[in-house]
């Protein structure tokens, strides 16, 4: 009788969800029966729901205080057993086209559980199933709960799987992801924005062709929209907003890395992305996040600074742009490089010093004109003799650097001296003109600096 079968299914689901021994016994005997229900009893929606929910329970680990941690988990064994046959995966994918919401929902959960425990095998199986990935992509346009589960599923599925990444992109992933991000409120959105960005980053990581498709189909404006913040929004940095912004900055980092290491055309891809991002004025947003927003979380500031360095590295146009940028608001406006130097000299966070120092490393690398520009400003400032603390914001770059270099003698600030020395190293590296400039300063002679060419 149908009612008896449904009642038995409910009891079985409850038993498998609560008992490890039931999970262990279930696999070999239970899978053939429940898979047959999914094949032959599609009209009985309640029975199909129960079968799927039972399968999800069979693949969900049960926490226990007893037993060794190295003991084989019944849920893992069941995942392995269910994923061995491609036909089983094909059957599950076919259920995603059913009209019933709970059938689709439990199926997505079941596939996610399989991916958690049998990632490689499921990746291989889905590639063999016609329209398998297409069906999964359609779930991104489903009701919100199923859409969110589909995001997690696709994130698992696209990890280190270049072929799957290409198909997912071909199925319109970029358009769908940015549409969801926009609907959720960009960086002000919830965990769904975080999931979208994680999937996006899987698709472009070390993948030059997908990066190019993103640039040509969507452009970088939707990405930059996530990075937009208002000046003075000190109290708007919730934990989730910070995570979302970090995800978007990681996307920028991946684009600035280009293709995989050693691949022909990697540098071309990187330069193309540098140029395209700069054309969309991303430098302004990175400076606001990394330099001007000292009330922002330190991880956010550091990541933005690293992005600035990578954006300008060996890119003449972007180097010139950074050299001419001003930050702050009237009447407290100063050159961006001066502000970054101030971070180096004043921050109490080591990782922020490293990130800001990276900007100067990138700015000076194969940039003799930029090195000469910075070196030309190295001279004592009229107020320097009476200064006992950090450089003032209106002091020229080189004067602030020089004051920090002599600060160990003036006020015993050896840390500021060491940090300034790191910046000076970038300025004079492989540049005889800059070395001569530094060595010619009477101040350096007085302090017994030894310069080697």
From TrEMBL:
Gene3D superfamilies: Leucine-rich Repeat Variant. One of its GO terms (biological process) is membrane fusion. One of its GO terms (cellular component) is endoplasmic reticulum. It comes from the Eukaryota. This is Golgin candidate 6.
